[in-house]
UniProtKB/TrEMBL annotation:
This protein's name: Bifunctional diguanylate cyclase/phosphodiesterase
Highest taxon in the source lineage: Bacteria
Residues of the full protein shown: 510 to 759 of 792
Segments forming domain EAL: 1-250
């Protein structure tokens, strides 16, 4: 409860901030863009992680203004990065039901002139499970705007395969539970191989999450995964600590 009260003031006091974790192309090692991961710099508790406060924000409805702030901030930050880079933004299922989601996104893009395809929205399977028709309509509207849509934490929910049929995702993010032991366990290798093949036949790319070791990268490359993300490359850091933001040398 105390945390909920504090969270009500956090946005106005500028206590929320975005950290960024790179998404790396597996073959070139090039940074393709960054995923925005929210942090709360609480004046007494120190840094509060999203797993702690996003559920509170969702239950209280505060996720709507917080989520809109995330969209605006992430697109603003993107304008500082090289033109070919993307930003990935996590969406709560609650935001999918908000009429202001589309307008916030459209206004953010218009105000900055950012190309829509440089923004990737990450949604989880529960978005497709809850209130399916309305959420599906929202997903199609988002796609019409031209942003990319990724299915996050893939493989952790139910009926995953059925959902892949229902919407043309641009990308599947393979949950780190399959990546953790891919260098030692054949069952993980087989699952990742199947997801990569499936994604490819559906015209989607794949990002492996939670990559911490070189051996995992070798296996992911062998299975045909196109992008990797994880502590091996970098944890999420504030924008001023991103080291790949130098403009390419001509
Ligand atoms: O580093 P990590 O602890 O940052 O993130 C934990 C969880 O919080 C992940 O599931 C991530 O998707 C979620 N998360 C991080 N940032 C945001 C955000 O801006 N909005 C929403 N809805 N979820 C986020
Ligand atoms: O659900 P989502 O994929 O958006 O959440 C990303 C979460 O994964 C964040 O909490 C982020 O800090 C965490 N994360 C990112 N890279 C790694 C990693 O290499 N290992 C582990 N254990 N967690 C990671
Ligand atoms: Mn994510
Ligand atoms: Na994920």
């Amino acid at each position: 409860r105390a945390l909920e009260l504090d969270l009500r003031g956090a946005l106005g006091k500028g206590e929320l901030c975005l950290h960024y974790q790179p998404l790396v192309q597996i073959d070139s090692g090039e940074t393709l863009g960054y995923e925005a991961l929210i942090r709360w710099e609480h004046p007494e508790r120190g840094v509060v992680m999203p797993d702690t406060f996003i559920p509170i924000a969702e239950e209280s409805g505060m996720i709507i203004p917080i989520g809109e702030w995330v969209i605006r901030q992430a697109i603003d930050d993107l304008t500082q990065w090289p033109d070919n880079m993307t930003v990935s933004i996590n969406l709560s299922p609650v935001q999918m039901r908000s009429p202001s989601l589309i307008t916030t996104l459209v206004q953010g893009l218009a105000a900055t002139g950012v190309e829509p395809k440089r923004v990737c929205l990450e949604i989880t399977e529960n978005v497709l499970m809850q209130d399916s028709d309305a959420n599906m309509a929202t997903l199609h509207k988002l796609h019409e705007i031209g942003v990319q849509i990724a299915l996050d934490d893939f493989g952790t929910g139910y009926s995953s395969l059925n959902y892949l049929r229902s919407f043309p995702f641009d990308k599947i993010k393979i949950d780190r539970c399959f990546v953790d032991e891919i260098d030692t366990r054949e069952d993980c290798q087989a699952i990742v191989r199947s997801v990569v093949d499936l994604a490819r036949s559906l015209g989607m790319t794949t990002t492996a999450e939670g990559v911490e070791r070189d051996d995992q990268v070798e296996h992911l490359r062998r299975e045909g995964c196109s992008e990797v993300q994880g502590y091996l490359f970098s944890k999420a850091v504030p924008q001023d600590q991103l080291t790949d933001l130098r403009k390419p040398v001509h």
